[in-house]
Fold this sequence. Notes:
This is OmpW family protein. It holds the Pfam family OmpW. One of its GO terms (cellular component) is cell outer membrane. It is found in: Cell outer membrane. It comes from Paenacidovorax monticola. The protein has one domain (28-200): Porin (Beta Barrel), CATH 2.40.160. The protein has 1 helix and 15 strands, in the order H-E-E-E-E-E-E-E-E-E-E-E-E-E-E-E. The strands form 2 sheets. An 8-stranded antiparallel β-barrel has the order 1-4-5-8-9-11-12-15. The chain has 201 residues and is mainly β.
Amino acid sequence: MKKNLLALAVLCALTSGAAFAQQASAEGPWLVRVRAVNLDSADKDSTGLGLSINNKTIPEVDISYFFTPNIAAELILTYPQKHDVRSAALGGKIGTLKHLPPTLLAQYHFTNFGGFKPYVGAGVNYTRFSSVNLPLGATVDKNSWGPALQVGVDIPLTKQLSLNFDIKKVYIKTDVNVPGVTSGKFKVDPLLVGVGLGYRF
């Protein structure tokens, strides 16, 4: 009896492994998406200057690898984005800066919704501020680490091509120092709403 149960367990394991390998092979473990993303900054400022940056639409490329049909990792990339920096206290635009925000997420993809493939993700964002051009000798901390949350859906158009809708909340902050005037934190914390196309291979 024990031998029969052991043989059955081995057979089930082999069958499951073969089925997953066949599915992974059919779909391919890689998914590359190109998105247009609207960046809407939260603009939370503790310096007293009423700092904000402009919202804008940015291009985004992400690369996902599927470890199983449900579990994937996604790396999100763009090029350094230039923003105007405004101050409510100083009456408008006071300078510019760039930020580069690569993000790495672990995802769970739901596979029981027919033609819709929703997913959720959580991970970490690293942002590098550069080309800071601010008055009065103001400086910002050039490195930011923070969490990132995500929800989205892929809608298959063909066997390999899909339409993608994606929403992310990314927590980005930096220390701002204006010598002899003020210092504090500026939190960008953007909401990112994107639409694009994905290619699975």
